Amino acid sequence: MSYKPIAVVGAGFSGAVVAQQLADAGHNVHVFESRSHIGGNCHTERDSDTGIMAHVYGPHIFHTNNEEVWRYVNRYCSMEAYVNRVKACVKGNIYSLPINLHTLNQFFSRTFNPKEAQEFLLGIRDRAITNPQNFEEQALSMVGSELYEAFFKGYTQKQWGRDPRTLPASILKRLPLRFNYDDNYFSHRYQGIPREGYTVLVGRILDHKNITTFLGQMYEKSLAQDYQHVFYSGPLDKYFDSSLGALAYRTLRFEKHTEVGDFQGCAVMNYCDSNFPFTRISEHKYFAPWEQHEKTIYFKEFSSEAGGEDIPFYPIGLAQENELLDRYQRLASAEEHITFLGRLGTYRYLDMDVTIAEALACAKSFLLKNRI
Description:
Strand content: 15-25%
Largest sheet: 7 strands, mixed
Structural class: alpha/beta
Order of helices and strands: EHEEEEHEEEHHHHEHEEHEEEEEHEHH
Number of helices: 11
Distance between the termini: 9 Å
Strand order of the largest sheet: 8-7-13-14-15-12-16
Radius of gyration: 22 Å
């Protein structure tokens, strides 16, 4: 019996992992990528002037507690250990993030030990807020007004383009608060960056005799009849031509600068004050400390609402989006022979490891129902 091929829309992690799993099982897979490169927003490439491996769409540090996912990516690349140590510029002073014992002692000009810091924070946080309903309430209940105003309020307004009181509390719950001197931004067991960059990693995942990748080519729904099944990782609303209205996404713009030597002495510097129009500056040579470069490149990062031609980076997911999202999800459920996946296809903020885990599970589920 002959089977039609399978279409995968998008050559980021979601699409690449699904394509590889199905190709390994014997399916012929056609991957459609509208951009001129694979890797999605994880795309990396060598800067032509400096030779530095640039994270073209902003910094990506791989971090996970999922051993299966960690083993999976290490099949295709050499993962170099990397610790993300973020700094923050607040009113002309530089602090460590996430907020830790060093941050607290420096900010309040104290010499707290861990117990004293916990007791101090207990005294300044808003204990009247027992069930935070938004980002601001979550911050006030965690760290109090001074730390909230300094580190979170202005930065959040720039990043999301919204009053923090309109954003969900869950955004801040992801960030740790530590009472020791650990300045590792993440707390996952496995952390690293592919030695040769993310695009090489994704390219190796897609390097399979049963996979054909079409770059710079949009998938058209009229092609569906040619395929047994479609896995779609593009924007959910765009698949339906935004017929019910547009879901809200944020996009990012990067302003590139080149200099000799070093610029800021670290990979990422957040600019928390609202008078800076950008959210952070990333110096990309620091994402590959195993390399040496005479020059440096850094990028100022600006966040804004995604327009029709902009690349969507992450969904906003405000409460008012829920009704519209639910209507699109009902449309998606009614579609036959198509699966929506990934950050854009499911309209969720997903880290890379979760994206890969869900793609593996998605492929496994399909294969159980469609054995060749």
